[in-house]
Design a protein that fits this description.
CATH architecture: 3-Layer(aba) Sandwich
Number of strands: 5
CATH topology: Rossmann fold
Shape: globular
Number of domains: 1
Radius of gyration: 16 Å
Helix content: 25-40%
Strand order of the largest sheet: 2-3-1-4-5
Structural class: alpha/beta
Strand content: 5-15%
Largest sheet: 5 strands, parallel
Number of helices: 7
Distance between the termini: 43 Å
CATH superfamily: P-loop containing nucleotide triphosphate hydrolases
Bound molecules: adenosine-5'-diphosphate, magnesium ion
């Protein structure tokens, strides 16, 4: 199965992905995908930003080569990975306060921090993910350790429960916006 592991920057995607059982899961980071696994696409732009338009065009032409290395599941990790044609999408969520702390530690500017807090509070990635029609799942990681997040991911993939049906059952942090002011 081809899986997208998405979520606002700082939600813990890379940390959790590193803890998945390597016998079963091949993990590929989105920026590596554009760098190394696309023919006819110049990924060397000196930036981690992926040109989604070009990437999706290339995928549409069937040129995306995803090396599964014989593993049962391939996980594409990145905050744009939910735009890819995958079988299942998992979006990591987190309360905006701990997100703010993490992004500050990462050295993001105040503007960038606020931008990401807003995106998280407004569930931007989940709403985008619900668009194309692959089953979408969210994990609220706010109270979870990295191994617990990895375990939730593995559970969803190995026996997928009922996916989100629409915007009504999305994890909701909008109430936190009032606490920022
Ligand atoms: N479940 C967790 N609990 C506490 N801290 C975490 C957890 N997951 C990730 N972190 C920390 O949060 C920061 C961002 O995690 P990272 O995996 O790089 O996020 P992403 O890949 O989604 O941008 C890192 O400093 C990481 O150590
Ligand atoms: Mg990451």
């Amino acid at each position: 199965m081809l899986v997208s592991l998405s979520g606002t920057p700082g939600t813990g995607k890379s940390t959790a992905a590193a803890l998945l059982d390597p016998e079963v899961y091949e993990t590929i980071h989105m920026n590596k995908l554009s760098e190394n696994h696309i023919q006819g696409f110049d990924g060397a732009r000196g930036s981690a930003e992926v040109d989604m338009e070009t990437l999706l065009e290339v995928i549409g032409e069937g040129k995306l080569k995803i090396p599964g290395n014989g593993k049962k599941h391939v996980i594409i990790v990145g905050h744009l990975s939910h735009h890819l044609p995958v079988d299942l999408i998992i979006v990591l969520r987190i309360s905006t306060k701990p997100l703010e702390q993490r992004l500050r530690l990462r050295g993001y500017s105040q503007e960038k921090i606020r931008e990401n807090m807003e995106a998280e509070a407004l569930s931007v990635i989940t709403i985008e993910a619900l668009n194309p029609g692959s089953p979408v799942y969210e994990i609220d990681t706010t109270q979870l350790t990295p191994p617990e997040v990895a375990s939730h991911i593995q559970q969803i993939i190995s026996s997928p429960p009922e996916p989100l049906t629409g915007s009504g059952d999305i994890i909701n942090f909008t109430g936190e916006i009032m606490e920022w002011y």
